[in-house]
Amino acid sequence: MKEIRTARPHLDATARHVHDFAEMLHHLRGDQLPDWMDRVLADDLPALHSMVSGLRRDFDAVTAGLSTTWSSGQVAGHVTRVKLPKRMAYGRADLDLLRQLVLLAP
Predict the structure, then answer these.
(1) Does the pLDDT of residue 81 top 90, yes or no?
(2) Which of 10, 40, 56, 87 has its CA 20 to 30 A from that of 80?
(3) Is the pTM higher than 0.85?
(4) How far from 41 is each of 4, 5, 14, CA to CA, in Å?
(5) Do the Cβ atoms of 4 and 11 come closer than 8 Å?
(6) Cβ contacts of residue 44 below 8 Å, gap of 6+?
């Protein structure tokens, strides 16, 4: 792996930036995001430049997501639980049956 990264500097830079972002995410270090974005923009990596552009569009939310322990995982799980019976009954059931499916679902 080291030989490949040495032969392809852009792969090494990409791997380093992805690793640094993962560390930020894992250790809840959203305060490091602006410096990370500057380092990414200093390299010639168009795919990561696109990612940085997306992060800048909602910078406050991204920083909060990288800084807090709060998660919307439980809410997303409930939304998925409700949508599955809806998809299964699409075109075959009326609202009353769908209501029963949602209320009786495990």
Answers:
(1) no
(2) 56
(3) no
(4) 23, 20, 11
(5) yes
(6) 10
Crossing angle of helices 46-57/33-42, nearest 10°? Answer: 150
One-letter amino acid for residue 8 of the chain: R
pLDDT at 76 over 90: no
Least confident among 1-15, 17-31, 49-63: 1-15
Specify the residue for token string 């080291």.
2
CB burial string 59-91: b at 16+ within 10 A, e below: eeebbebbeeeeeeeeeeeeeeeeeebeeebee
pLDDT at 61 over 80: yes
